[in-house]
Amino acid sequence: LLQIVAWLPPRDRVGVARVCKRWHRLVRDNFLWRHVDLSSCRISSKILWHLLRNYFQGSLQTLKLRGSLFSFRKQEVLTSALLQALGKQCPKLHQLSLMELDLRSFQYGYMPSSLTTLELRCCEIPFVWFQVPETPCTFPRIQQLSIWNVPAFSNQHLLNIATQGTLKTLILSKVYRITDVGIQAVGPHLKDLQHLALCHCSIGDSAMHFIGRHMKQLHHLDLRSNSLTDAGLLCLSGLPNLGTLCLRDCGQLSPETILIVCQSLPSLKHLDLSRIDFEDKIFQKIRLGLPNCTVANTILCTDSSAIS
Question: Are 117 and 95 in contact (CB under 8 A)?
């Protein structure tokens, strides 16, 4: 029965608690509240407080929230007090995904110190954020950071988080304030980065130089929809651990350079060339030149990091 209730959305789980005392006890089982996704509905801070006090404490590990940033009727979902309470009462919380929330009044120090994964989608953030607070033991040590369409996210934000030296995964999509200068500044601080996605960003060839120079531990690199030319791609030659390279919609690259660079990547297993206007015989030549690599030219990247 517990497994069946686990399939219900959080709102319905709370509802079935009214059926009988047995179900009331069942719904409070910690197993049901380890991974909570509230992104499909818009809730108020009052409801979130209720969930925290009655269900989340001691069990919550991942949480997804959606605000009302783009709604005509604004509704407060997350408050500074709520965020701090999550950190105190949910010590196992390691992943937080926030969507369509206005965070401009929040201090970064309010973030739960247990967080290792932070995802922001279509959010507003302060122009000064991600700095390490004066009390180092209280700030989150973020290993995976995903920023999707957050207009204020800038080179300085990226530098603030990169200098903490904990990032393993960095996904940036539609953040136009990130430039080659920003990648140059953070490169020396991202030597242990394994997964990098820079999609629909304002970066070009010079950023590739610093990626190739400093980020030798990369396993996955997604550069879709960027102004990348052959000169920039050549800077990625020889990355020893790169297993997946996505060049989707990078239409300024020549097939000859793609083949030369990919042949220099000893660990390459997956190459995405979707939405690049090459003839079929060109794709065939690339495939023949990379016998140990799967080359895609019609479908999207299928792993969980794929960015549309």
Answer: yes
- Alpha-carbon gap, residue 73 to 66, rounded angstroms: 14
Topology at the third CATH level for domain 143-307: 3.80.10
Mean pLDDT in residue range 85-106: 95
Query: pLDDT tens digits, residue range 21-34?
Result: 766 677 777 778 89
pLDDT digits (tens, 9 = 90+) for 167-209: 999 999 999 999 999 999 999 999 999 999 999 998 999 999 9
Spatial distance between the Cα atoms of 275 and 4, rounded to a whole number of angstroms: 42
- Per the structure block, which two tokens stand in for 77? 């979902």
SS3 198: strand
pTM over 0.85? The answer is yes
What's the Cα-to-Cα distance from 291 to each of 142, 260, 276, 285, 305, rounded to whole Å? 37, 14, 20, 10, 24
Q: Which of 249, 259, 254 is nearest to 287 (CA)?
A: 259
pLDDT digits (tens, 9 = 90+) for 235-282: 999 999 999 999 999 999 999 999 999 999 999 999 999 999 999 999
The answer to whether the beta carbons of residues 87 and 63 sit under 8 Å apart is: no
Rounded Cα gap, residues 245 and 270, in angstroms: 6
Whether the CA torsion 51, 52, 54, 58 is positive or negative: it is positive
Nearest one of 212, 169, 222 to 187, comparing CA atoms: 212
What is the b/e burial string over 89-118, where b = at least 16 CB atoms within 10 angstroms of the residue's CB?
ebeebbbbbbbbbbbeebebbbbbbbbbbb
Domain map (residue ranges) of the chain: 1-32, 143-307
